[in-house]
Structure formats: structure tokens, C-alpha cells
């Protein structure tokens, strides 16, 4: 993990458009985390929460929910990009999210991001970032999402 890229003010965010921002730290996805996510969302499908059954399933083990991986954005994005010169930031949503590969429980994931757009809005800036998650040793991304964040001056 490198130090986060720092965007200072609206112009600092705009200057990052098209630039890769580095990587977050690796994060191990545990069965406990998957089980807690299942409890929080009500998604108790066996491929997530039943290691004995999942051993004979299509992935050979339990896998994280796609939405669990997506929910790591608030933890990992600040490790990649730091906004300064704003009074607050809010999650504005997603334009697109895909889960091209599974996240086996026990694997480590990390994220990287690229600023796609920076649009001035009343009182600040809206940033569209493509956040890409990979697993250690994986051949393809496990999640690719266009995340929208708003920073207010």
C-alpha cells in the first residue's frame, strides 16, 4: 500500500481525472465477516455461510457476497485517495457494479481506483471513480464499480 493520493479542493480533484491512484492495503475476507454480512442483509445462501456444503460446490469453499466486496469501498478508498479542503463528503451512489470473479473466504483483497470524472456541483464537486478489487494471486478482478462521491466545501 502506498500513501493515499491527496486531492486539495475542487481543482485538485479535477487534476486527477484519468490518473491511476495506487492501491489500498490487503484485507483478508474471513468467514466471520461473511457470516456477519449474511446476518445484516438476510442473504444466508449456502455458498456464503455453509463451509461443509460449499466444499463440494462450484467454488470448493465459501465465497464472499458480491455486495460485501462492494461494501469495502468506504474502508479502502480513503487508503487510496484523500480529499482535503472540503467540509464533508458523501456517498452519492453507483453507476455500475460487476463481480467478474468470486472472492473465496480466506483470500485477501485490495482495491485500486481511477478518477473518471470530476464535475463541479453546487457547493463542491462530484467525483466518479472506477474502483477495481482484486484478490491476491487472482487472474481477473473480483469487483469493478463506478462509485460516485460528493465533496462539499
UniProtKB/TrEMBL annotation:
Residues 16-128 form the MaoC-like domain. Coiled coil: none annotated. It comes from the Bacteria. Signal peptide: none annotated. InterPro entries: HotDog_dom_sf (IPR029069), MaoC-like_dom (IPR002539), NodN-like (IPR039375). Belongs to the enoyl-CoA hydratase/isomerase family. PANTHER family: MAOC-LIKE DEHYDRATASE DOMAIN-CONTAINING PROTEIN. This is Acyl dehydratase.
Amino acid at each position: 500500500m502506498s500513501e493515499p493520493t491527496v486531492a486539495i479542493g475542487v481543482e485538485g480533484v479535477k487534476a486527477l481525472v484519468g490518473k491511476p491512484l495506487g492501491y489500498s492495503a490487503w484485507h483478508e475476507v474471513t468467514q466471520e465477516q461473511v457470516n456477519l454480512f449474511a446476518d445484516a442483509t438476510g442473504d444466508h445462501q449456502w455458498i456464503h455461510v455453509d463451509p461443509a456444503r460449499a466444499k463440494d460446490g462450484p467454488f470448493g469453499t465459501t465465497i464472499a457476497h458480491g455486495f460485501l466486496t462492494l461494501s469495502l469501498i468506504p474502508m479502502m478508498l480513503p487508503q487510496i485517495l484523500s480529499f482535503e479542503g472540503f467540509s464533508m463528503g458523501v456517498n452519492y451512489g453507483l453507476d455500475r457494479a460487476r463481480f467478474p470473479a468470486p472472492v473465496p473466504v480466506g483470500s485477501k483483497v485490495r482495491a485500486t481506483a481511477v478518477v473518471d470524472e470530476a464535475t463541479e456541483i453546487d457547493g463542491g464537486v462530484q467525483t466518479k471513480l472506477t474502483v477495481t478489487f482484486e484478490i491476491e494471486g487472482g487472474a481477473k478482478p473480483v469487483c469493478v464499480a463506478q462509485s460516485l462521491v460528493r465533496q462539499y466545501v
